[in-house]
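Review form for a predicted model. The reviewer records the input and the model, then writes brief findings.
Reviewer: anonymous (R2)
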Amino acid sequence: GDIKPLTAPKHHILPREAAIEIAPRDCNKCVYVSSLSPGTEYYIRAKSMNERGWSDYSDSIAEIPRGIPSAPENVHVTAISGTCLGVAFDPPLYDYLVSSYVIQWDNNESFTNAESDSSSCSSIGFGSCAISQSSPPPHRFEFCGLDEAETYYVRVAARNVVPVQFIHDGTDNTQWSVSVSAVTSDQVPDPPTSLELVVLGRDSFQVLFKWPEREGGQPISDFAVMYDTSEDFSSPNTLTVASTVPSVIPDSGGKFIFDFTPTTPRFVPGQLYFLKMIAINSVGAGAESEVISGVPSGPPDPPEAATLTTLEASKFPITTANIVWAAPFSNGGYPVNGYLVEWWTKEDNIPEVQIVRLQYSSQLFDTTFSLSFSPTPTIKKETPNLPWNAPASLVRRELLNLGWDESNDLMLISDVEVTRTTIASGFQWAIKFGSNPDRSISDGDMVSLSASVMSNGDSGSPSITVSTLQDGQRKGGQTEVQYLQVRGSGELSGHYRTKFEGSEWSSYIPVHADASYIKNVLTQISTIGEIDVIQNDDVDTALVGTGNDVIHHYEIQFVSNARNVEALVIDTSHVASTEGEVSVVV
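Model under review:
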C-alpha cells in the first residue's frame, strides 16, 4: 500500500528541550536552490571540476517550481436572507494556474459536517462546493438551506494542477483561508437596476426597470419613487408604488414597466426631473437605485383667437388671405418651432383618374384581363374577362356593372368615363370616376382598382398595372379611418408600440389599453395631429374583414391629417399569450 511518513512518539529523554527529528536523507551530489518565483520557468545547467579545471556546461533543462496555491485572501461573508449567505474573496497571492475554488460552510467551527461524505453544493445546513474561476475578482458564491438566526463559519481554498498531499492524522496540505462567520437574517432588498424613462405625456412618464437581484428573504411589498428638479434631491417628493403595479415586459430581458403620474405635486411640462427608486420589504427600505432624468412634454395647445381676413375690394383679382392668431396657451413643454396652416374649399370637386396599362413583347391573340374593386375588407367585385384590346365602351360598361353591392346595399361605382389610347407595345385606359356633370357630388378619393392578366397561350408576355394619375377630392372630404386590432387566444399580456410616417417609436401601450390611453400615446407622436379613437370590442368581425379571434377593436380617425395617410406600424415583439397566439394589426 501507500508508504506513510514515520511518526515519533512522545519521548522520555533529557533535557526536555531535546527533540527527535525525522527527515529524508541528506542531499548527496545535489544542491537546493531557494528564493525562486513559483510558476516561473527556469533553465538549469551544470558543470564539474577536478584538479585539471572545469568541464563544459551540460545541456540545459527547463523546470517550473510549483506547489498548491496559497490561501485565498480578503474573504468576507454576509447574510443575504434568513436562509442564505454570500461569500466574496480574492485570489491567493500564489495563484499559479488556479482552476477552481473549494468553499466550505458549517455551523461547526471545526467544519466536521462540511468534511463529511454527505456534504455537497446542495446539502442542507452545511456544504462543500467546488466552483470554477469564471469571473474577475472578487469571486462570489451564494448558498442557502440554512437555519435562520444561526452562526455559520466559512472558509475557502484554491486548487490547481498540483494535487494535495495527505499528511499525518488523515488531513491534507490544503491551504485554507482564515475562517469567517456570519449570522443568517433577513435583509432589505437590493435596489432596482437598469432604470429608463419614457415620456407618456405632459405630466407622466413610463418607468422601466429590472427587478432587484435579491429580495432579502422577504417579498418586496412596495417601491418608493423619489423625484426632484434638483439632481442632489435636496427637496425630494416621494410616491409609493405597490409591487403589484409594475408588469413584466415579455422578451425584454426581465424589464418591468409602470406609468408614473404624480398628483402632489404634478409634473410641470418642460421641466427637467431626476428620479430614483427604492425597494421595500418587511425588514425595511433598501439602497437607492441609480438616478435617471427626463422631461415630461406633449404637443402644444391649439393657437388662440385665429382670424382670417381678405380684401373687400380690389381692381385686381383677390387671391390672397391674411391669417392672424395668438400663441397657444401652453407649448407642451418645448418652444413652438413652427405652425401648420391648412386651407381647403367646399366648392371644388376633383374626380379621381386611374390608369390601367397593358403591355406585351409580341402580338397578342387570346390574352384577357379583368378588373376588380374592393372598397372595404369584406367587399370585392370583379369584372368578367375582357379582351386584351377591349374598347373603352366595353371597359366602362363592365365597371358600371360592378357599381352596386346588393348584399350590403352599397353603391360602389356611380359613374365613370373611360378613354383608350395606344402606347408602345400596348394600350392604356384612363378611368375617370364620378365625372357625370349631372351629379352634384364627386366620388372623391377612390380605392385603387386591381387588375390581373391571363395569357391563354399567347407568347407575348403580357403584363398589366394600375396607377393613380389624379387623386379625387370631394367637398368637405372624408377623414382617414384605420382599424387597430388585438387578436389572439388565451390570456394576453405585455405591451406594443407604434410609429407613423417616419416617427420614432411611441411609448408602450398595454395590450388591454382603453381608447383614451391609445389616443394619448398616438397624440404624442410628432407626425400625428388631432385624432379620435373609438373602442368597439363587440364589433361584427364580418363587417371589418377579420376572424373571430379579435380581443380588442379600435377605430382611429385622423381628424387633422386631411389626406390619405400611411398605415400605423406596430412593434409586437413584447406581447405574449398563454397559448402563444397573439397579434396586433392595422
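Findings: The chain has a mean pLDDT of 90.
Further findings: The first strand starts at residue 42 and ends at 44.
Recommendation: see findings above.
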